[in-house]
Design brief:
163 residues; two-stranded antiparallel ribbon; Dna Ligase, domain 1; 2 strands
Length: 163
């Protein structure tokens, strides 16, 4: 950089700082909105009743704090009532776990058994492996994506996953 270009740059910075400072210190003290409402002016203050009228005219619903608390209590009671019904239904029936099992190349029947055990489909992964080994299917593993449920028997699971 030459000395003249450096001086010009410094002078530009000084001029910009001076103009910005002038607007900051000598400009308006309050920000004014450029958008003016049709019904309100800067000095007009609305009463509570006027605010409620304007809000209801625009489709809003205005509640007192008591009304709001009553509605919240009623909603909470309703929510608690439905959750009680759901828990009763869940206790009547048996919980069924579903999982999507992704079998890829290189996986073994031990890996499959462990994945099914983690998904709560079967109780013991090693028992699954031994059953597969007893049937001689450990090399017949079929890669793919399978949907398995906990209500299925060991035979059904093996038939789905193996060729």
């Amino acid at each position: 950089m030459t000395p003249n270009s450096l001086r010009s740059f410094a002078l530009g910075l000084l001029l910009a700082a001076t103009v910005t400072g002038g607007f900051y210190f000598f400009g308006p003290t309050e920000a004014e909105s450029t958008v003016k409402s049709e019904n309100t002016t800067k000095s007009e203050k609305l009463t509570e009743e006027e605010m409620i009228e304007k809000l209801t005219a625009n489709g809003f619903i205005v509640h007192t704090e008591e009304e709001w608390n009553k509605q919240n209590e009623a909603a909470n009671e309703k929510k608690e009532g439905t959750s009680d019904k759901k828990s009763e239904k869940e206790n009547d029936g048996e919980v069924v776990y579903r999982t999507i099992l992704n079998v890829s190349m290189g996986m073994t029947s031990i890996d499959i058994g462990n994945a099914l055990e983690e998904a709560k489909i079967i109780d013991d992964g090693m028992k699954f492996y031994k059953e597969v080994e007893n049937r001689g299917l450990e090399n017949e593993l079929r890669p793919g994506t399978f949907q398995i449920e906990s209500g299925m028997s060991m035979d059904e699971i093996i038939t789905i996953i193996f060729k």
